[in-house]
Amino acid sequence: MAFSKQARRTKIKKSIRKNITGTESRPRLAIFRSNKEIYAQIVDDVKGKTLVAASSRDKDVTASDSNKLDKAALVGKAIAEKALKAGIDSISFDRGGYLYHGRVKSLADGAREGGLKF
């Protein structure tokens, strides 16, 4: 029996999370992508805290009339800006079981442009 789309993503996500964890010195950038929006947060898994978060529902991102790909890049730049203010410059990238193309790649490129290293 074939996996459903959600079950397949969960299986991939678990295998990714075995190798990627967020520490205080190098937190994890976690991504969630819905059909309409994209969310990103930087997490310290040791303490169990979200350090910085950004999404396509933030006022500065929703103000722009652009497509989902461009909004993902703006979210990446926004999370990078917030992270640099919080003193975070190096992260581990957790794509959350999504393929690394489209909006996920756009968000990652935006975060790199914003100054994050991963």
TrEMBL record:
Output the Gene Ontology terms for molecular function.
5S rRNA binding; structural constituent of ribosome
Pfam families (alphabetical): Ribosomal_L18p
Please tell me whether the keyword RNA-binding is annotated for this protein: yes
Entry GO terms, CC: cytosolic large ribosomal subunit
Q: Tell me if Ribosomal protein is a UniProt keyword of this record.
A: yes
Which SUPFAM superfamilies does its entry note?
Answer: Translational machinery components
Functional summary from the UniProt entry = This is one of the proteins that bind and probably mediate the attachment of the 5S RNA into the large ribosomal subunit, where it forms part of the central protuberance.
List the protein's name. Answer: Large ribosomal subunit protein uL18
Q: Which organism encodes this protein?
A: Gillisia hiemivivida
